[in-house]
């Protein structure tokens, strides 16, 4: 499929970028570009045909990491830097591991955390031009024939899963996104409320308005004694999208769990909290048996499709292992 011609603008300020993005219409789309990894795919796949691209990488100051009070990641910080920054790794191990296990070294060098959170689904019905305009949403749904990689929860209407794997860790850490340039100025949205079930016709599968620029990802300070782990299960050992991924953040006093945050990715249209598993852990001494019970609770109520019931035992195992890995520190 041939790409359309488009105009390229190097933005120098967030306000300038937001102003240009606010002019976007269906007929004349104006689209932000960060690392360009997903954007270029979407353009080559014929899903996006921008009239103008607004390059955010020329805006100064959006690539800073600040670990002073919790963690602030400028939206242009790359996945590679999140993986390799010693302060981030020392304090937010599950996030570093999630970034370091995403994609390939080349992609991680270019991909930014803002663009990563705003990437579109990898559903093959969504991506294939054969299905554009004739119901990728329906094809990505329960009725789809090839649903090996689709959701096993909340899949009654649409079974595409949200693609970002760092999102799994960020939701577990209770992180937020800062958005600037909208009608009400700057605002901060919790990532647990940010994602929307993917739909073909949306510009983003997230609560970001036309004309808004993501400026930062903010992670709150950790409780004393917090320990975390991230695990991503793939079909093969080299780079791959997950069957599922899991992030666990525990606050421990000795062997007793004081607080637990367990989030699962690639199993539902948005990152899914394992609330019942958290409840089982909190206030109790963490044993292998308790981790097993919590993992069983995490998959309760799953509604797998014709070809993805294999995900249920895989997820159960990954939840159990990630809980034990977090507790082991
Ligand atoms: C081989 C391969 C394997 C991969 N494996 C994984 C994986 O395991 N896990 C994973 O999470 N990802 C994976 N990815 C996806 C990749 O990580 C994302 O495509 C990338 O992170 C997107 O970031 P970007 O900076 O390139 O965003 P872009 O492509 O530049 O932008 C993506 C979207 O976000 C918008 N956008 C970007 N930044 C902003 C901003 N600051 N404000 C407002 N809008 C913005 C753009 O308009 C666009 O709609 C893989 C990709 C490839 C090619």
From TrEMBL:
Keywords: FAD, Flavoprotein. SMART domains: CO_deh_flav_C (SM01092). Gene3D superfamilies: 3.30.465.10, CO dehydrogenase flavoprotein, C-terminal domain, Uridine Diphospho-n-acetylenolpyruvylglucosamine Reductase, domain 2. GO terms for molecular function: FAD binding; oxidoreductase activity. SUPFAM superfamilies: CO dehydrogenase flavoprotein C-terminal domain-like, FAD-binding/transporter-associated domain-like. Residues 1-224 form the FAD-binding PCMH-type domain. The keyword S-adenosyl-L-methionine does not apply. It comes from the Bacteria. PANTHER family: OXIDOREDUCTASE, XANTHINE DEHYDROGENASE SUBUNIT C-RELATED. This is Xanthine dehydrogenase YagS FAD-binding subunit.
């Amino acid at each position: 499929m041939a790409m359309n011609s488009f105009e390229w603008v190097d933005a120098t300020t967030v306000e300038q970028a937001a102003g240009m993005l606010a002019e976007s219409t269906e007929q004349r789309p104006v689209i932000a570009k960060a690392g360009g990894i997903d954007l270029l795919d979407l353009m080559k796949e014929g899903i996006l045909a921008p009239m103008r691209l607004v390059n955010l990488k020329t805006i100064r100051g959006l690539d800073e990491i600040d670990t002073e009070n919790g963690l602030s990641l400028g939206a242009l910080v790359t996945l590679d830097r999140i993986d390799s920054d010693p302060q981030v790794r020392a304090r937010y191990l599950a996030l570093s591991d999630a970034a370091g296990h995403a994609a390939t070294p080349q992609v991680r060098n270019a991909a930014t955390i803002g663009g990563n959170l705003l990437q579109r689904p990898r559903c093959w019905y969504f991506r294939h031009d054969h299905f554009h305009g004739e119901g990728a949403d329906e094809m990505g749904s329960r009725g789809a024939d090839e649903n090996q990689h689709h959701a096993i929860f909340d899949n009654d209407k649409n079974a595409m899963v949200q693609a970002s794997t760092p999102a799994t860790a960020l939701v577990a850490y209770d992180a937020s996104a800062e958005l600037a340039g909208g009608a009400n100025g700057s605002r901060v949205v919790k990532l647990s409320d940010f994602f929307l079930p993917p739909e073909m016709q949306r510009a983003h599968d997230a609560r970001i308005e036309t004309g808004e620029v993501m400026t930062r990802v903010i992670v709150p300070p950790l409780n004393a004694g917090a320990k975390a782990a991230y695990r991503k299960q793939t079909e093969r050992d080299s780079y791959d999208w997950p069957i599922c991924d899991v992030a666990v953040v525990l606050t421990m006093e000795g062997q007793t769990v004081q607080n637990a945050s367990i989030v699962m990715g690639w199993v539902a249209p948005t990152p899914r909290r394992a609330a019942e598993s958290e409840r089982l852990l909190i206030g109790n001494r963490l044993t292998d048996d308790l981790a097993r019970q919590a993992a069983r609770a995490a998959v309760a109520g799953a509604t797998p499709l014709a070809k993805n019931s294999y995900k249920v035992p895989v997820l159960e195992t990954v939840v159990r292992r990630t809980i034990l890995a977090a507790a082991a520190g």
